[in-house]
Write the C-alpha cells for this entry.
Amino acid sequence: MQTPHNPDTPEDYCGTTYAAKLLGLSVGTIQTLVEKNELQAWKTQGGHRRISMLSIRDYQKKHNMLMSPLDGREHRLRVLLVEDDPVTRDMIRDFCGRCEMPVDCTAMSSGLEALIDMASIQPDVLIADLNMPGVDGFELLKTLKHSPQFQRMTCLVISALSADEIAAKGGLPEGTIFMAKPVNMQWFNGFLTALIAGRRLEQAPAMA
C-alpha cells in the first residue's frame, strides 16, 4: 500500500527488484507483501514504488531470516548489472552466481531501477548496456558522474554500438571500460579476477 512516509536519505528505501533480492523472493511476491501491508512502501510522482528498508529488516526478523543473501557482502565484490536484454543479463548474472570468486551481482533491466537502488546497493562495479529504453546507459553514467559517492566505482560498458556511434552521443565518461557485444566471458572472468586481486592488495596493508 502507498504510505505518506518519505525517507530522509536514499539508504532508507529501495526498489522492488532489490527488495526481492534482499529477501530471496520474487518481484511478484514483494508486490503482494506490499499490498498486504507486510512491507511498507509508497510511490513517487512518476509511479515508481519505493520500499522501506526498515520494514524489510522487520520482515526478516519476523520470519527468522537470519541469513540475508547479502550477509557478509562487505567482503564481496558488489556488482550492479543494468541490461535490458534478458539473455545477456541472465548470462552475466548466472556466471557471477556460479563462479568461485567472492562476487555478489544484482541484475536490473533499466537505468531508472539502478538510480533508485544505487545508494542502497553501493556497488563496487557498475556494468551497463548503452541502448536501453527510458534512462539509457549514457544518461545513467552522466548522472552518476556528478555523484562524489561513486567516484571510486568501476564502470564497465557493454554495447554493440561502434566507437563512432558512441562518440556521436557524447562519448563515455573518462575511465569507463568498454567491452563490445557479444560478451566475451573469458575476458569478463579476467576482468573480475583483476578487480578482486586489486581489492586484496589494497586491503593487505590494513590486515598486516
In short: The two ends are 50 Å apart (CA to CA). The helical segments are 16-23, 27-35, 53-62, 86-98, 111-121, 137-145, 163-168, 185-207. Confidence is low (pLDDT under 50) at residues 1-8, 67-72. The CA atoms of residues 99 and 208 lie 28 Å apart.
